[in-house]
Amino acid sequence: MLNILKDENGQGMVEYGLILGLIALAAVGAIVLLGPSISKMFSDAKAKLDNPAGT
Description:
By secondary structure, the chain is mainly α. It has helices spanning 2-6, 11-50.
């Protein structure tokens, strides 16, 4: 029973999984927070390309 408790073979994979989860959570948060401003930037750029000045 003590051998099972001392076994650390899966510890590295769990740590990588937690790190990956935190990175994914941060990415989703950044997309949610920055999404509207990025969308506005692309909309403004599209409007300028559709209606260039001087034509």
